[in-house]
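C-alpha cells incoming
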C-alpha cells in the first residue's frame, strides 16, 4: 500500500485509493516489492496532445502552520513520499522500514527551517500539533482522482473560453504535474489577468450546472466532419496525429465536445470550484515549432478542496521566494545577458565565481582522493568526430552549426564523451591497466530554443562534471559501487541526503549482446544492493546503448531534482573500436561508464541556491564573515582582524559608514553567515561580538576562537560554524 506519512503527529494518510499504477517496479533492499507506487518520469501521452514528462513530488502541507508562518513571510513544510521510494543517507532500508524513510525526510524538512531565521521561526515558534490537518499536495501521477479533476477542468476552461470569446480556437489541453493548461489560437487580442477572471467566473457557472461528461466513439470520417462543421482546423491536425481507432470524443452535456482519450470525472459538478484557479498566460508555438503560429496558453491548477488550493498557493509563494534567478540577482552571483551577449549564456559575477571556485576545488580534490585522474579537453572538434560518435545523426538538432577552419568543418562540443575516447585511443592498454577513471569539468554547448531556457536550469553553455570509467566486464559492480559512494559523499556534503533512485533496463531496440546486457543490469542491481538502497525499476527505460541509474535529490521544500546519472555504454566503444589486451594477448572491448554527479554546475548551483534560499553553508558562502565597526576609532583593530582572517583563508569583508542597525539589516538581507560587531571594548580586549544569520546574537568570543571555528567549519564542509 502506498502511504503518506507525517511525523511527529504519527498520522498516516493513505493514498492507495488514488495511486496511479505504473509498469515500474520498486525494489527495497535489493528485493522486488509488489505494492503500487507512482511513476516519476514516464511520459504521459494524451490523444491529440503533446507528450510531456512528469515528476513525482508529493508534498504535505500543514495549512494552519503555513498560514501563521506566512504572516511573517515564512513556511513550515513537510514532505513525504510513496512508501520507500525515497531513502535517507545513513539509514538501513527494508520492506518494513518505509515509514522511517519518510520520517527522516520530515526531519530534514525541519532542519531546513534553520537555514534562514524566518523559516526557523516557523519551525520552532509554530509547533505543529496532531490536531492540525495535514493537506497532501499530490501530483497527477500520484492521484488518479486529481488527474481526472485536472483533465476535466482543462475541458471546462476551453468551454468557458469559447463561451466568452467565441472566435477562440481550441488546440490541446492536457493535465500536468499539479494542474493543467489549454492552448488557444486567438489573434484578436492577448488574454489579460482580467480576462482570466472573466473566464474563471464562466467556469464556475459550468461547474454549478453539473453537466454530465460522457464518452463517445466515432469513426475517423465522422470526427473530421464534426470538426470541419465547427471550424476547428487545429483539431483536424490533432485528428491526423491519432493513429488508433476508434476516435473518442468527450462531451460536456450537449454544449461542448473535444477529441480526447480521457479519463474524466462523471460530471462538471464533481469539480470543487473553490479548488480551482487560473494562474497565468504564456505564449506557445503550435506543436513547439517556431515556424508555426503562436498560441496563447492558459495555465491553471485544480484540487479536491479549497484547503489544498490554499496550501498549494503557499507552496508556490515559498518556491517564488527561493527562485534562484531572483536570489542570484539580489546577491550579485550571476547574470544572463540576453541583450548584450545572447540567451542562455551565464556570466558569473565575483561572488558567484568565488562560490563556483569553492565547488570546483572540492570536486577536483575529492576525485583525486578517490582514484580519478583529471583531464582537460577542447571546446571544438572536427565534424568527423561527431559523425563517428553518432551525434551528427542522432543529436544534430541540439548542436550548433559547423564552422569552416582551413577548409575543414568544426563544431562546438555538445558532450565530453568522444573527447575522453580520443584520449583513450591515444594510449595502449592491457587488462592490468584497467580500470581507468578520467574526470573533467568540461564546458559544452547545446542549442536550446529561446522559449525553453530557464535561468541556470536550462542554458546553452554549461559545465558538466563528467567522468568516464573504462573497465573490464567483471569490474562493473565494484566501479558502480565506488561511483555510488562518491555520489553519496558529494551530494551529502552539500546537504542533500534524501534520494530517489531509478534503474532503467534494456529497451526493445538495443545494441550489445544479451549476455553483456544481463551482466550489466545484474552489476547495477548488485551495486545498489551493496549500498542497501531502495530503487525503482523502469523496465525498458534504458538507453539503446546501455542500462543506467538516475538519482533525484529532495530539496528543502519537497521538490525533486534529477542530478546524478550513471550510464553504461556498449555503443561508443564499438563505434571508436576501443580495445585492451587481455590475459591471452587478444584484443577485447572495454566497458565504458558515463557518470555525472551534479549533472551540470550551472543547474546544480541553481538547485543549491533554491534549496538554501541563498543562505548558503558557511564553507561555500561567498562572504563568510562581515566585520561591522561601531566607530572609526577601531579601524586599526578592524584591519588587523581582517588581515588575520584572510591569512587563514577566511573570506571576510568590512562594511561601515551606516548606522549599526542598517549595517546588520543589510548583512541579514545578504545572508552573511557570520557578523562580527566591533566597538571600543572589543578592540581593547581583542574580542569580537558575534552574530550569526542562523541564531542572531550569540555572544563575545576571542579573535582566535572565531578564526578557529570558521576555519573548522570550512575544513569540515559544515553548514554552520559551531559557536
Amino acid at each position: 500500500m502506498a502511504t503518506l506519512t507525517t511525523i511527529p503527529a504519527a498520522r498516516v494518510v493513505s493514498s492507495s485509493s488514488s495511486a496511479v499504477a505504473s509498469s515500474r517496479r520498486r525494489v527495497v533492499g535489493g528485493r522486488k516489492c509488489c505494492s503500487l507506487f507512482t511513476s516519476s518520469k514516464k511520459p504521459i501521452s494524451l490523444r491529440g496532445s503533446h507528450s510531456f514528462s512528469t515528476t513525482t513530488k508529493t508534498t504535505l502541507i500543514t495549512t494552519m502552520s503555513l498560514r501563521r508562518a506566512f504572516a511573517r513571510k515564512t513556511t513550515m513544510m513537510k514532505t513525504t513520499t510513496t512508501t520507500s521510494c525515497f531513502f535517507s543517507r545513513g539509514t538501513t532500508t527494508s520492506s518494513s522500514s518505509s515509514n522511517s524513510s519518510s520520517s527522516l525526510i520530515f526531519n530534514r524538512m525541519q532542519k531546513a527551517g534553520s537555514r534562514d531565521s524566518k523559516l526557523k521561526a516557523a519551525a520552532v515558534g509554530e509547533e505543529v500539533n496532531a490536531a492540525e490537518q495535514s493537506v497532501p499536495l499530490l501530483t497527477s501521477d500520484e492521484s488518479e482522482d486529481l488527474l481526472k479533476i485536472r483533465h476535466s477542468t482543462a475541458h471546462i476552461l476551453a468551454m468557458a473560453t469559447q463561451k466568452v470569446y467565441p472566435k477562440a480556437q481550441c488546440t490541446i489541453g492536457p493535465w500536468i504535474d499539479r494542474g493543467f493548461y489549454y492552448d488557444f489560437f486567438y489573434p484578436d487580442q492577448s488574454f489579460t489577468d482580467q480576462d482570466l477572471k472573466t473566464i474563471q467566473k464562466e467556469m464556475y457557472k459550468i461547474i454549478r450546472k453539473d453537466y454530465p461528461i460522457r464518452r463517445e466513439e466515432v469513426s475517423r470520417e465522422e470526427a473530421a466532419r464534426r470538426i470541419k462543421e465547427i471550424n476547428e482546423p487545429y483539431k483536424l491536425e490533432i485528428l491526423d496525429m491519432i493513429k488508433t481507432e476508434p476516435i473518442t470524443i468527450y462531451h460536456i452535456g450537449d454544449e461542448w465536445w473535444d477529441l480526447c482519450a480521457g479519463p474524466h470525472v462523471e460530471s462538471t459538478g464533481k469539480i470543487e470550484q473553490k479548488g480551482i484557479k487560473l494562474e497565468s498566460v504564456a505564449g506557445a508555438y503550435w506543436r513547439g515549432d517556431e515556424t508555426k503560429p503562436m498560441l496563447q496558453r492558459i495555465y491553471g491548477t485544480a484540487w479536491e478542496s479549497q484547503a489544498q488550493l490554499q496550501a498549494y498557493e503557499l507552496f508556490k509563494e515559498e518556491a517564488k521566494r527561493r527562485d534562484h534567478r531572483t536570489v542570484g540577482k539580489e546577491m550579485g552571483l550571476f547574470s544572463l545577458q540576453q541583450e548584450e551577449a545572447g540567451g542562455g549564456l551565464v556570466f558569473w559575477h565575483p561572488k558567484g565565481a568565488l562560490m563556483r571556485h569553492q565547488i570546483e576545488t572540492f570536486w577536483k580534490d575529492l576525485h583525486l582522493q578517490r582514484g580519478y585522474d583529471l583531464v582537460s579537453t577542447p571546446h571544438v572538434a572536427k565534424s568527423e568526430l561527431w559523425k563517428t560518435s553518432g551525434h551528427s545523426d542522432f543529436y544534430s538538432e541540439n548542436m550548433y552549426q559547423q564552422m569552416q577552419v582551413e577548409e575543414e568543418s568544426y563544431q562546438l562540443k555538445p558532450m565530453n564523451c568522444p573527447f575522453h575516447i580520443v584520449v583513450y585511443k591515444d594510449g595502449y592498454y592491457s587488462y592490468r591497466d584497467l580500470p581507468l577513471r578520467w574526470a573533467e569539468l568540461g564546458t559544452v554547448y547545446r542549442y536550446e530554443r529561446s522559449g525553453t531556457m530557464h535561468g541556470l536550469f536550462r542554458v546553452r553553455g554549461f559545465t558538466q562534471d563528467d567522468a568516464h570509467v573504462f573497465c573490464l566486464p567483471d569490474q562493473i559492480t565494484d566501479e558502480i559501487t565506488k561511483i555510488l559512494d562518491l555520489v553519496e559523499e558529494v551530494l551529502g556534503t552539500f546537504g542533500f541526503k534524501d534520494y530517489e533512485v531509478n534503474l532503467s533496463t534494456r529497451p526493445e531496440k538495443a545494441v550489445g549482446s544479451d549476455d553483456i546486457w544481463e551482466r550489466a543490469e545484474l552489476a547495477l542491481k548488485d551495486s545498489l544492493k551493496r549500498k542497501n538502497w531502495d530503487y525503482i525499476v523502469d523496465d525498458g527505460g534504458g538507453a539503446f546503448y546501455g542500462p543506467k541509474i538516475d538519482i533525484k535529490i529532495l530539496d528543502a521544500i519537497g521538490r525533486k531534482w534529477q542530478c546524478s546519472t550513471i550510464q553504461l555504454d556498449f555503443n561508443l566503444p564499438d563505434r571508436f573500436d576501443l580495445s585492451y589486451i587481455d590475459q591471452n594477448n587478444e584484443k577485447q572491448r572495454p566497458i565504458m561508464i558515463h557518470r555525472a554527479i551534479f549533472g551540470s554546475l550551472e543547474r546544480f548551483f541553481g538547485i543549491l541556491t533554491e534549496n538554501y534560499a541563498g543562505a548558503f553553508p558557511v564553507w561555500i558562502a561567498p562572504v563568510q564573515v562581515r566585520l561591522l565597526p561601531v566607530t572609526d576609532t577601531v579601524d586599526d583593530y578592524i584591519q588587523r582582524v581582517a588581515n588575520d582572517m584572510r591569512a587563514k583563508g577566511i573570506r571576510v569583508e568590512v562594511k561601515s559608514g551606516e548606522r549599526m542597525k542598517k549595517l546588520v539589516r543589510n548583512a541579514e538581507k545578504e545572508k552573511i553567515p557570520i557578523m562580527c560587531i566591533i566597538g571600543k571594548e572589543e578592540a581593547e580586549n581583542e574580542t569580537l561580538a558575534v552574530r550569526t544569520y542562523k541564531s542572531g546574537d550569540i555572544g563575545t568570543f576571542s579573535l582566535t576562537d572565531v578564526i578557529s571555528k570558521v576555519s573548522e567549519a570550512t575544513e569540515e564542509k559544515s553548514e554552520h560554524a559551531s559557536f
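note: Residues 1-23, 30-58, 60-85, 90-132 have pLDDT under 50 and may be disordered.
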